[in-house]
Amino acid sequence: MLINMKNFFSFNRFFIVTVLIISVFSCKERGVQTAQQSYEQTIFLVPADTARGLLNVKVELEYPKTFASPSVLDSIHNTLVVNMFGKEFLSVPFDSIPKVYAQTIIADSKANLLSDLKAFEEKVPDFSLGAFYNYIEGFPLQNDGRIFSYGYTRDVYMGGAQGLKTFNYFNFDLKNGHLLEETDIFTDNYQNSLADLIKKAIIKQNSQVQYSDTIMPNGNFFISDEGITYLFNVYEIAPYYVGQTEIFLPYSDLKAILRKNSPISYLVASAK
Known about the structure:
This protein is α+β, with helices and mostly antiparallel strands. The protein is 35% helix and 28% strand. The protein folds into two domains: 33-180, Heat Shock Protein 90; 181-272, Heat-shock cognate protein, ATPase (Actin, Chain A, domain 4, Alpha-Beta Complex).
């Protein structure tokens, strides 16, 4: 029997590509499907004189839109909304939040800024407040169908010597929508051992900075395939000029204090 080799290889290529496409989409179906939504608005405090001051508000979200379990998705939504925007936004559809939040910030801030401007211009008629901003960005991290990790940054300047940028992270068990905490992952009495690992990693990363003597796990972490990353925001453990401190701890370093059969055990087992 003669085989047309050209057709044979064409069929194989088609088969392989088809399998890969199906595999990719199958993997995505198991995870949380996300969508992007953003809104930005700038106002001038004195429209007739744009040099007197402005306020820029920007919200950029890649938010969890669909998942196989609606109750799990609702749990994720509620946790993220309350922490990122406040309880008053629970009744707002997630894809509408950027615009509603930005307009709320502008309405609340404008009155205060104009009041400050009026107080100063009584002494200095041409006084300028400058440029203010309020930015928030949300983004998914781990999303493998079993764990959904999510982070957001808030960057705000409303006067003073400098602005303040903070990072916050959340990790969800996609079996039930439960927000994972340190006690779900680490063994009992883990705090001191974990603190020692964090301190050693910090010193190794930057031995020139004078950090706080009382560094402890702060619950602000995200889960990945290879380990757990902790984030200490500005002022938490070091002076402002140091900025945020991010520490990656591989599972190989954490094994002694990881709880057996925890929601992340499969990641620990497969990590290199």
